[in-house]
Amino acid sequence: MERGLPIELQEVIFSSADKTLSRHIKELEKAGKIKKIAPRIYTGKINEDPTTIIRRNIFTILGNQYKNAVLSHRSALEFKPTENGTLFLTYTYTKKIELPGITLRIVEGPGPIEGDNKFFGELYVSQQARAFLENLQISKKSGPDSKTLPVEKLEERLEKMLRVNGEDAINELRDKARSISRELSMEKEFEKLNTIISSLLSTSTPKTLVSAAAQARAYGIPYDSDRLQLFEKLFIELQQRIFKHRPDKNKSAQSFANFAFFESYFSNYIEGTKFELDEAKEIIEYQQPLPTRDEDSHDILGTYQLVSNRNEMQIIPTSGERLLEILQYRHKVLLSARPGKKPGTFKDKNNFAGQTSFVDHALVRGTLIKAFEYYTVLQAPFAKAIYMMFIISEIHPFLDGNGRIGRVMMNATLVNAGESKIIIPTVYREDYLVALRKLTRQSEPDTYIRMMDRAHEFSANVYGDNREEMQAYLTACNAFFEDDEGRVLKIVPKE
Fold first, then answer.
1. Tell me, what DSSP letter sits at residue 247?
2. Rounded-to-integer distance, Cα 133 and Cα 197, Å
3. Which of 289, 310, 357, 435 could form a disulfide with 451 if both were Cys (CB 3.0 to 4.6 A apart)?
4. pTM for this prediction
C-alpha cells in the first residue's frame, strides 16, 4: 500500500491477509469508492481503464504477487510486453494468467541466482548472460507468443555488442554464461551461444549465423505514477541500446582538477550564474568569493568542492534511501551560501519552469525511491548516468540547484565506473534544454540520448595537466560561445 495516502485514493491496492484491512477494502468496494480490476488487485481510480492501470503498474504488481519470480526469457531483454501483451516469468509452477491488457506466461524453473537483479519489490530479472541462455531454449510457439526472441535478434544484439565494445565485452558475457549454464543445467543452450559468439569472432564457421548483421512498482511512500511511466520509457529505451565505453583520461590529480574547474564553470553558467573565466579562476584558486557576488561565487565553489574530489565522486547510491541521503548532503555543499533555498532539504512547496510543473513536493521522496529501481537494473555506466541526471531534473527535488545536482550525480556515476565525465558547454545549452523538454513533454527519449551521447564524446577529449591547453581545446570546440551566437559544438579530434 502507498503510505501517506488514503486507500481509496491509491492507484493500485492489494488484498491483505490482515483481517481489519481486508474488511476495510471490502467496505470501500461495496461503497463504490474502489473497484476490483483483477484477482487480489483493486484501484481507487474507478473511472480509469483497468488495462491502463495494470500496464502502468505491471512490474509493481508482479513484485507483490509473485515473490522471488524472475522476469525471464525475452522479457528480460525487452523489458516490456510483446505486441500481443505477453510477459514471461520463471517461477515455481507453469501457468497462464490473464490480467487486463497483460497475459502472464509463467514457466516453472530456477528462481533468482547470484547476479540476477532485484527489480520491483520481490521481483527479479534475469541477468544478461542468463537471459541469452533462456532465449536459446526451444520454444513450442513462435512470434509474440514465443517465450524466446528469434535467433536473428539475438545475433544482432551480440553483433552490436562486439562492434561497439569489442571482444572483451562479448568474451566476458560468454564466460559468465558458461558458469551459469552449469548451475542451471543449460549446457545445450550455452553451446548454441558459444557457436554464435565463436562465429562472430571468426573462430568457427559463420555459416551457422542467421542474421545479416551478424554475417556482416511494491509501493512504499506516495509517488508520481505519471512520472514513473516516463522514467520507464526512458529506461526501456536505454536498456535496448549498447553504448560506447569512453574511459576517463584525466588520471592525474591535476588533470582531474582541471576538468573539474571547467565542469563547475559550465554547470553554473548554464543555470545563469555567469562569470568571466578569469573571475572563476580567481574564485577557485583562492577559495574566496568575489566581494560583490558572494552567493554566486559560493555556487561555483560548492560545485567545485564536490566535482574536484575524486573520492567523493566515486560514491554512488546503492538503495533508494541512500540516494536520498547523498542528494541531500551534496545539495547542502552545493548551495551552502543560500540559506533561503534550504540547502540539503527537499522542497516544501511546488516549483515550475514555464509551463512545466515538476513533481509535487509531497511525492518527491517516493518518486526518487521508485525511480531508483530502474537505475539499479541498468548496466551501462553512460545509461545509468544520464538516467540519473534526467530523473533529478524531472523530479526537481529542491527549491534550487536541481540542474547542477543532477549533473553532479550523473558524473559521479561515470567516475565510479572509470568513464569520462560529461560537460555541457555554453554553446550546447539550447540543445540540452530542448532535448530535456522533448523528453518531458513528448515522452520522446531518442533526442535526449543522442544529445548526451554527443556531449560524452566531446567531453572524453577534454583532458590534460595543463589548464591553459585544456581551455584552448575548449575554445577550438566553440565551447564558450553563447547558444544564440550561431555557433555549434565542434568535436576536434586529438592525436
1. B
2. 13
3. 435
4. 0.64
Q: Which CATH number fits domain 225-476: 3.30.870.10, 1.10.3290.10, 1.10.530.10, 1.10.10.10?
A: 1.10.3290.10
Kindly state the cell numbers that stand for 52: 491502463
Q: Which residue has the cell 531483454?
A: 77
Determine the Cα angle at 488 with ends 485 and 491, to 5°: 145
Q: Which helix (H) or strand (E) holds 104?
A: strand 102-108
DSSP calls for 379-441? -SHHHHHHHHHHHHHHH--SSS-HHHHHHHHHHHHHHHTTBPP----GGGHHHHHHHHHHHHH
Give the pLDDT confidence score for residue 355 in this predicted structure.
66
DSSP 145: G
Which of 245, 237, 246 shows the shortest CA–CA distance to 378?
A: 237
The residue ranges of DSSP E strands in 110-201, in sequence order, are: 117-118, 124-125
Q: State the amino acid at position 181 in one-letter form.
A: S
- Element (H or E) spanning 177, and its range? helix 151-183
CA angle 107, 108, 110 (to 5 degrees): 115
Least Cα distance to 423 among 251, 237, 248, 245 occurs for: 248
Listed ranges 142-151, 407-416, 473-482; the one with the highest mean pLDDT: 407-416
Treating both helix axes as pointing N-terminal to C-terminal, what angle do 253-269 and 402-416 enclose, rounded to 10 degrees? 150
**Distance (Å) of CA 324 to CA 220, 226, 321:** 14, 20, 5
209: cell is 549465423
Q: Is-contact 432 455, C-beta < 8 A?
A: yes
**β-pair type (124-125, 352-353):** unpaired
> Which tens digits make up the pLDDT trace of 96-148?
999 999 999 999 999 999 999 998 889 999 999 999 999 999 988 888 889 99
Which residue type occupies 22? S
Domain borders along the chain are 73-220, 225-476
Q: What distance in Å separates the CA atoms of residue 190 and residue 264, rounded to the nearest whole number?
A: 48
User: What proportions of the chain, in percent to the nearest 5, are helix, strand and coil?
Assistant: 55, 10, 40
35-38/41-43 β-pairing: antiparallel
Task: Give the phi and the psi of residue 175 in degrees, each rounded to 5.
Answer: -65, -40
CA angle 51, 52, 56 (to 5 degrees): 115
Long-range contacts, stretch 102-105, CB < 8 angstroms, 24+ apart: 102/54, 102/55, 102/58, 104/62, 105/147
